[in-house]
Fold each of these.
Amino acid sequence: MKGIFGSQTIHLSEVDSTNNYAAKLVSDGLCQNGAVILADFQTKGKGQRGNHWLSKKGKNILMSVVHHPDDLPVCEQIKFNWGVSLAIISFLQDFGIEAQVKWPNDIFVHNNKIAGLLIENQLTGYFVSSSIFGIGLNVNQIDHNLKGVTSMRKEKNATFCLKSIIPRLVEKLNYFIFCEFNWLKEQYESKLYRKDKDAPFEDADGLFVGKILGVNKDGSLKLSRGNKIKEYGTKEITFRIDL
C-alpha cells in the first residue's frame, strides 16, 4: 500500500527522542501505520552507535516515521536503510543539493554531514512487525559545534520553511520505501560516498587504506584491501574521514 506515510502527524515542541516517543506510541497502540512524529527540539536525540544528534530548537527536521510492513522478511529489513537514505538524497536534489551516503547511514554533501538516520525494527518470527525511521536533517542551522557539518541553508544560502518542505520529504519516503529490494540496493550503491576511491579506515587491526566496492544483501560493506576483498558489519569498521 503506497501513500501511507503522513496519514497521521504529531508535532511536539520538545521530546527526549522522536524515536523513543514513536516506540512508546507503537507499544501502546496509539498511532497509525504511517504516523509522522515531529519535534522542534530533542533533549536526547539518538544517532547510530549510541551517538547523540545535536540540533538547535526549531532549526532542523527532527522526525520519526512509523511503519508496519506487510510480510517483510527479516533478511530484507536493510531495504529500509537504503530507502530512507535515497529518499533524503532525492529530497535534497530537488533543492539543488547533491548528496551521497557515507556508509551505512550518514548523508554527506561533499565532505560534510547534512543528515543522519536511525532505523529501529521490531521482529516477530521471520518478519519485521514494525519499523521506526528516525531522521535528523540540518536545514536552517548554520552554527554547529562540530567540524564537518553542513546544512541546507549553508549549501544554498537560503532559509527554508520547515512546514512547507517536510511534506516533500514524506512524499519521497512514500516512493522509495516501497521500491523493489534489488533496485534499492543498486541505487544505494551508486550513491556511496568515496566509492571506488582509496580512503582511510580503521578496524580491530588498526588503520588501513581501502576502497569501497559496494554492499551485500544484508547491508554489510564490501571493501578491497590490498589484493583481498573484505566484508564488514556496521560495528566492525570506522570510516576515518578525519585523516
Amino acid sequence: MLIDTDAQCNSTGFYEAKTKGEATILDIFCGDMSASECVQHTCKVDIIPSDKLLADAENMVKVDERRFTHLKRSLKSVDKLYNYIIMDTLPAIGVALKNVLGVAQFVIILVEESGCALDGLMDFANALELAKDNNDELTVAGILIVRAKDRTRKSKRMRELADTIAEKLGTKQFQTRIRESVVFAEALTEYYVPLSEYAQNSTTNKDYKAFVDELIEVIRNG
C-alpha cells in the first residue's frame, strides 16, 4: 500500500486515486478515520490519497496529545493486510512528516545530485532524533542519490558529501544511484505508466530495480 502525505498530490494523481468526495489522508489527521476507511484500490496500487488542503495541515490538525500519532493509530486497521506500506512525504518538517516518522520503520533520504535537496537536512536529522523518542523502531535505511549523471566532477563530489552526511546520521549511502533519463520523465508526466512498462531496459529502470534489491537486504537485516 502507498500513502501519499504530500499536498502536491503527485503520487495520488499518478496512481489514479480520487480525492473529490472521497476519504483522504486529511481525514486521518483531522477526523481520526482508520486507514481501512481511506484506502482506495486502483488498477495500479492500493493507496491512501493525499489532499491539496493538506498544505494547511499545521492549522487544520488539532493541537493536542494525538497531533503526531493519528497515522500510527489509523494503520492498526490494516497492518495485517500488507507486507509493505510505503509513505511518500515532503522533506519539510511539519505535522504530516512527524506523523510518518511516528510509525515508519525505515526512512530513505533522497538527495538530488544538484545538491539542492541538502538544504535543511540537519533540521531533518534533528526531527529524526526526536521521533525516535516515541518510535524506537525508526531507522534511516540510507541515503539515495537521484537524478544522477555519470562520470562528472559533481557526481564524484556528491558521493563524497553523501558519505559524510551518512556518517553523521549513523547510516550509509546506497551503492545504487538513480540516473537521470528522458524516458523517466515521459513515463511519469506524459503517459502516466510505470517506468518498468514504458522503458524496461532504460538505465533508470535498471537503477530502481538494483536499489530495491539493496533496500530489501537492509530490511531483512534490520
